[in-house]
């Protein structure tokens, strides 16, 4: 497909299903900030319709959506330059999601590891929305004809499915309408791991708060969690290969690299031979220096929820200007009366 046909446009989303973690920040938001600029139109979304695929307390969902918006802005997303909004204010996502439910195959959905992980052993009791989740995600992206999607490693399979849905739609209808989106999974922190277990992803749903750094943690909490992070007794090696079977050590090096905007190789070059008793305090200082201004700004923004709501409403109106014509053309391609002219 001719790349040039589509405006270079970035879309990505985060679920407002709990607080923001360091994983969300380093794997997603910080990279969203980096992609703002003249090269791309950037669209960032709080995906509340995705969040409710598992039960959300309504008051908590409202608060988490506003707090996530505050997090985006505090981390450097400019709501004038980027389009920033919550998904449910742009109904075209769900409308295109339905079309894609009719394009995607049951077998494709059943293969999704996130479905298997989240539904667990009790698939019969999981919501239908949780099963269909990846087709709504494809709609989030393709309703804007987005060409690039920055995400953490855990979303890779969903982005492959998005490409499959675009290809099947284009083939089924004999059109060249939806772009084949590029996943952008880059940097040192595409998979930030739990501070308690280097083989598990850092996640807002982990029962142990010590396993993660929350973007709302204060300096003492950040320093404590890093000091208590699980490690091994060996000093840092002098090459990255020396970290191969040391997932906890590798994770802390990756976090350092991503926070400092340097490569893991540079971290090793600067800290080779150090014991964790020395490295952890440096990492804690760096984390506090980078994260505290963000959490302070988030708290300040949260003092004015009406302003956050205005930003989201304005973002949604701008998003609809792009989404509505694409939905209309999709309906036209599918032959829906009202979209097709006589
Ligand atoms: P969600 O809300 O689970 O996570 C949001 C983003 O944060 C990244 N992330 C991580 N990156 C590195 N290390 C971690 N430990 C870590 N934890 C989370 C995720 O990879 C993601 O980029 N399905 C998506 C939301 C979504 C979406 C979309 C994303 C809905 N529609 C369209 C992109 C495009 C999700 O559940 O992300």
From TrEMBL:
Q: Gene3D superfamilies per the record?
A: HUPs, Tyrosyl-Transfer RNA Synthetase
A Pfam family the protein falls into: tRNA-synt_1b
Q: Which InterPro entries match?
A: aa-tRNA-synth_I_CS, aa-tRNA-synth_Ic, Rossmann-like_a/b/a_fold, Trp-tRNA-ligase, Trp-tRNA-ligase_bac-type, Trp-tRNA_synthetase
- Binding sites annotated in the UniProt record for L-tryptophan: 140
Identify the main location: cytoplasm
Q: Which GO terms describe its molecular function?
A: tryptophan-tRNA ligase activity
Coiled coil (UniProt feature): none
The protein's location, in the record's own words, is: Cytoplasm
**Catalytic activity of the protein:** tRNA(Trp) + L-tryptophan + ATP = L-tryptophyl-tRNA(Trp) + AMP + diphosphate + H(+)
EC number(s) on file: 6.1.1.2
Keyword Nucleotide-binding in annotation? yes
Q: Which residues bind ATP?
A: 15-17, 23-24, 152-154, 192, 201-205
PROSITE patterns recorded: AA_TRNA_LIGASE_I
List the ranges annotated as motif 'KMSKS' region.
201-205
UniProt motif ('HIGH' region) ranges: 16-24
What is the role of this chain?
Answer: Catalyzes the attachment of tryptophan to tRNA(Trp).
* UniProt-recorded name of the protein: Tryptophan--tRNA ligase
Organism in which the protein naturally occurs: Ruegeria sediminis
Organism classification: Bacteria, Pseudomonadati, Pseudomonadota, Alphaproteobacteria, Rhodobacterales
Q: Which gene encodes it?
A: trpS
